[in-house]
């Protein structure tokens, strides 16, 4: 696998060399069109719009993912994520954040470059709109959405930012101050309303992935629930903004919190009332394998009634293993790079099947921590002993049963005599083994091997109906409408086979339950990073991370294989919760917002820096 990474890097270097070759500079690249040509043809204008999609959404299926910057996963190679998670970012250094596929689009320069593209579109589209008004209206709707989504990311990262809707030339004075947070949210909502008015409710299969009316309305609900949250509420954010002289840049300074929650509730209800969307497999039949049904859903290439916004990748557009879960997330014993290892703290948050909490202090739980858990645990996490994909040929001879091996066999004298194939001391590859004892299963296709040379071809489900139900429930709870909130959370829990929330759970206890439901239901879907910030739970989510140590003990000095010839284990495993070495997460309140980079401040002295930087 090291060779594969080296080859990928060499390919990038060769590509860069070719891109700089004089002969290549004289040619118009395939798929690229001059600005003059684009604005003569609506089909070329659509190509212009197409490029905005990846600029807005990035590449969530990547070697690095947002989960690695939150309390969901540990990124094995580190490559700067550790320093980021220790709170060491400054206005001069974001470490690997701007360089990774999953987050490269989430920075000031990239986002404003996309804003410029949207502004160019609106400055030109009327020149050819009359050629096909319906077509041009649809494109306008998509770009209204793109502009809104881009400003949403700007505001979640930085707070209020300059709102720019004009295309500035090289000689224009475009140094602008930051707009207030409230002004930005109002602008984003107006753009989404414009988008929803122009977009269709659905597309033909060959246009799957384009933004629909439901996508615009769903995104509006997301924007408004973020805006209503504690991070931007003057009644809740005083401690983190203490001494900052421009609080209007980072949140509301007046108005009613209840009114803001009501806007979020109504926006989510508008999507529900469309009656276009529903939960996939909402009512499991008797005898159904709920974990398998959930796992299969995230591997479906076809869209379902649950899918509101999807990001589509095809093998030909993937870039090596950097954006392919088959390579990036598979265990090292499968020749994967073993990234995005779920941390034990997330695993421990999955309930027992009866709805009770998992607890390492409970001897029954500790003896078999993977028995009778929430079905979503099995659909999300690979753990010791679970059946997984057929191993590659060199590993299959050592493990003909193809079960995950994240433990160790010890002699009674205390000597480790056999390491599992998927550990950091395994015989296949050891440099990329999990520190937590877990690997990611969610949205990783077991029918494709990292050694096949094939790539996964499924969409990333960016927004699902389940998220809308959770937004609605969260807003209802904040408004004191707890019975309504429970009803909609229970819809999601029933789909997972979990019991309903207690009919007496209310207020803060219900708030905690809803937040945990989001953590579990939306794990590894790029939500937790933002939820930690908007809920002001940075200190709670930043701590020493944990994993699991698994040991089998035998009264002998060597064993031929990790398991016995019949596939059984060497006795009863002993599980212990351990600390992941070197992964102490440290929180500073400045991390609730990103810094505006120093070079931007120096270029524009009207920009006011965020607190702590």
TrEMBL record:
InterPro entries: SusD-like_N, SusD_RagB_dom, TPR-like_helical_dom_sf. Gene3D superfamilies: 1.25.40.390. Residues 1-19 form the signal peptide. Residues 317-613 form the RagB/SusD domain. GO terms for cellular component: cell outer membrane. The keyword NAD does not apply. Residues 24-223 form the SusD-like N-terminal domain. It is found in: Cell outer membrane. Pfam families: SusD-like_3, SusD_RagB. Belongs to the SusD family. This is RagB/SusD family nutrient uptake outer membrane protein. It comes from Sphingobacterium gobiense. The lineage of its organism: Bacteria, Pseudomonadati, Bacteroidota, Sphingobacteriia, Sphingobacteriales.
């Amino acid at each position: 696998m090291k060779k594969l990474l080296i080859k990928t890097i060499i390919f990038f270097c060769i590509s860069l060399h070719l891109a700089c070759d004089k002969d290549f500079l004289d040619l118009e690249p395939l798929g690229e069109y001059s600005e003059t040509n684009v604005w003569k043809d609506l089909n070329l204008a659509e190509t212009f719009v197409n490029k905005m999609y990846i600029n807005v959404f990035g590449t969530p299926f990547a070697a690095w993912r947002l989960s690695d910057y939150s309390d969901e996963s540990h990124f094995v190679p580190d490559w700067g994520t550790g320093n980021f998670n220790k709170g060491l970012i400054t206005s001069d250094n974001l470490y690997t954040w701007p360089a990774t596929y999953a987050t490269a689009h989430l920075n000031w320069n990239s986002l404003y470059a996309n804003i410029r593209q949207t502004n160019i579109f609106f400055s030109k589209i009327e020149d050819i709109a009359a050629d096909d008004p319906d077509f041009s209206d649809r494109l306008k709707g998509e770009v209204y959405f793109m502009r809104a989504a881009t400003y949403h990311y700007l505001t979640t990262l930085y707070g209020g930012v300059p709102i720019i809707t004009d295309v500035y030339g090289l000689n224009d004075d475009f140094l602008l101050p930051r707009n207030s947070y409230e002004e930005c949210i109002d602008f984003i909502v107006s753009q989404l309303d414009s988008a929803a008015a122009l977009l269709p409710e659905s597309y033909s299969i060959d246009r799957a992935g384009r933004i629909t009316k439901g996508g615009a309305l769903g995104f509006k609900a997301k924007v408004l629930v973020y805006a209503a949250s504690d991070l931007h509420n003057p009644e809740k954010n005083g401690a983190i903004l203490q001494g900052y002289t421009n609080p209007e840049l980072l949140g509301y300074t007046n108005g009613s919190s209840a009114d803001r929650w009501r806007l979020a509730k109504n926006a989510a209800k508008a999507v529900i009332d469309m009656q276009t969307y529903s939960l996939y497999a909402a009512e499991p039949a008797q005898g159904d394998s709920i974990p398998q049904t959930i796992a299969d859903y995230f591997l479906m290439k076809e869209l379902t009634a649950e899918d509101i916004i999807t990001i589509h990748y095809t093998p030909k557009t993937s870039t090596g293993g950097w954006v392919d879960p088959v390579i990036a997330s598979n265990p090292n014993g499968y020749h994967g790079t073993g990234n995005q290892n779920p941390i034990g703290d997330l695993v421990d948050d999955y309930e027992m099947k009866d709805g009770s909490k998992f607890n390492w202090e409970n001897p029954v739980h500790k003896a078999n921590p993977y028995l009778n858990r929430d079905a979503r645990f099995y659909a999300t996490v690979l753990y010791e002993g679970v059946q997984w994909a057929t191993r590659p040929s060199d590993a299959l001879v050592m493990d003909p049963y193809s079960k995950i091996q994240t433990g160790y066999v010890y002699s009674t004298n205390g000597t480790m005599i056999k390491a599992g194939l998927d550990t950091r001391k395994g015989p296949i590859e050891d440099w990329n083994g999990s520190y937590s004892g877990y690997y990611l299963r969610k949205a990783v296709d077991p029918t494709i091997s990292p050694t096949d040379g094939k790539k996964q071809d499924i969409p990333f489900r960016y927004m699902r109906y389940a998220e809308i139900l959770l937004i609605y429930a969260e807003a209802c709870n904040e408004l004191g409408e707890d019975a309504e909130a429970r009803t909609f959370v229970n819809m999601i829990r029933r789909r997972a086979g979990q019991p309903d929330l207690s009919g007496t759970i209310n207020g803060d206890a219900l708030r905690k339950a809803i937040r945990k439901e989001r953590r579990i239901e939306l794990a590894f879907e790029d939500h937790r990073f933002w939820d930690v910030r908007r809920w002001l739970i940075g200190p709670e989510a930043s701590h020493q991370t944990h994993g699991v140590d698994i040991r089998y003990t035998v009264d002998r000095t060597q064993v031929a294989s990790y398991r016995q010839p019949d596939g059984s284990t060497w006795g009863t495993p002993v599980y212990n919760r351990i600390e992941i070495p070197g992964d102490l997460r440290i929180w500073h309140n400045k991390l609730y917002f990103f810094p505006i980079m120093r070079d931007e401040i120096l270029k524009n002295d009207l920009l006011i820096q965020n607190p702590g930087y």
